[in-house]
Amino acid sequence: MTTEMKNLEKVAERLKRAAKEGERVILFGDSDLDGITSVMMVKETIEFLGGATPSVYISDREKWGYGLSKEAVCSINENPPALIISLDCGISNFEGAKEAKRRGFELVIVDHHKTFPELPEASLILDPMQEGDEYPFKKMANGGIVYKLSEKMLGKDFSKTERRFLELATLATLADMVPRKEDNQRILEKGMGFLKDSSIFPLKVLKEVIGEDSFLEKMISLLNITSPYGNVNSAYLLLEAKEKSEAEKWIEKIKKENEERREEIKREEEKIVGEVSNEEMIIFKEGSFSAPLAGTLASRVIRKCKKPVFLYTKESGIARGSARVPSGQDAVDAMRHCKRYLQTFGGHPEAAGFILREENVNDFKKCLLEYFKDQEEESCRGEAS
Fold first, then answer.
1. What is the C-alpha separation between 184 and 162, in angstroms, rounded?
2. What phi and psi values does residue 240 have, to the nearest 5 degrees?
3. Is the pLDDT reported for residue 56 higher than 90?
4. Average pLDDT estimate for 327-346
5. Most buried of 126, 197, 228, 273, CB within 10 angstroms?
């Protein structure tokens, strides 16, 4: 008998009941392609089952911080009772989960990020990283998990949406750069061929605009970081477009945003790398860049400098940032060690995000330095023995 993800059946049944009974459903997704495609698949699955069209909120990290934060929950312009489904975020949002419960919402979390010994207050959690989950493969994109969830919800009717959902899961898997093996490889083997002649209308239009050459790479580069528009963002609005003129409008907006973003990233990267000294154990810097660019910048800086990178911006007394660490180190564990200074944090071992009050920034840096110094000494002892 094949081992199933913990709570996969329970979450599928809960969402099916919500659709059948016409409950109000609120989908809250992370702002990258993994989060957006996860939202689209759950939304379309609920609609297929006859449920009312869910409300959609896409994370605005500049306004609300990381994931389903307390600020994000307070920004949901709906009154309970309603079911919030958090997608590609939520597993580290303890305060957001408490706020949802306080306001009278029911919360279901579908995530793939590293969990903590304690879990947020949610009625159900689907995350293969959680304790007690015996599913053998732990490194799927969230879109891959949602693909399985939709298959479980739709049963024999899944064949009617399978190609479209496979393309969306493939986008998520490529964009999130998860290991190309096991479940991920099976998704990619089927989905890559479909994406070359996509059944998703806006992607056909996008291909006409940017051309065949390296289409997938260009598409992911364009759509993985986009600007907020209302409660969603421009990538979501493009992928939901029904008319060619509407799709072309969003493509032009995204291309313009992307060009401006590339210039900003190049300028900030040169500045940060130019200020790094060999003596620094970690790169811990405040920047004047847009907050959503912190992750991309940190990824570029670590490729050049090969040491842990923590970049952040400050506004209204709050510091928001992203962390990247070399392979074999663990950014989430480092921040867990220093969690007394943080409001929230989470992500993957190699790539994570954090939020803290401005007055705690220096103490957070000192704590990180101690953590990485201890890690280095442990490594040296291990090599000596």
1. 16
2. -95, -5
3. yes
4. 93
5. 126
> CA 16 from chain center: how many Å?
24
Q: Tell me the CA distances in angstroms from 66 to 70, 124, 301, one per residue in order.
A: 10, 21, 21
Q: Is the pLDDT of residue 380 over 70?
A: no
Q: 8-199: which CATH number, 3.30.70.100, 2.70.98.90, 3.90.1640.30, 2.60.40.10?
A: 3.90.1640.30
Q: Is the peptide bond before 81 cis (omega within 30 degrees of 0)?
A: yes
**Which tens digit of pLDDT belongs to each residue from 152-188?**
999 999 999 999 999 999 999 999 999 999 999 999 9
Give the chain's length: 385
DSSP one-letter string for 57-119: EE--HHHH-SSS-HHHHHH---PSS-EEEEES--TT-HHHHHHHHHHT-EEEEE--SPP-SS-
Q: Cβ–Cβ contacts within 10 Å for residue 77, how many? A: 9
In the chain, list all ranges with CATH 3.90.1640.30: 8-199
| Assigned token pair, 276 | 């790094």
pLDDT at 277: 86
Q: How far is the C-alpha of 250 from the C-alpha of 269, rounded, in Å?
A: 28
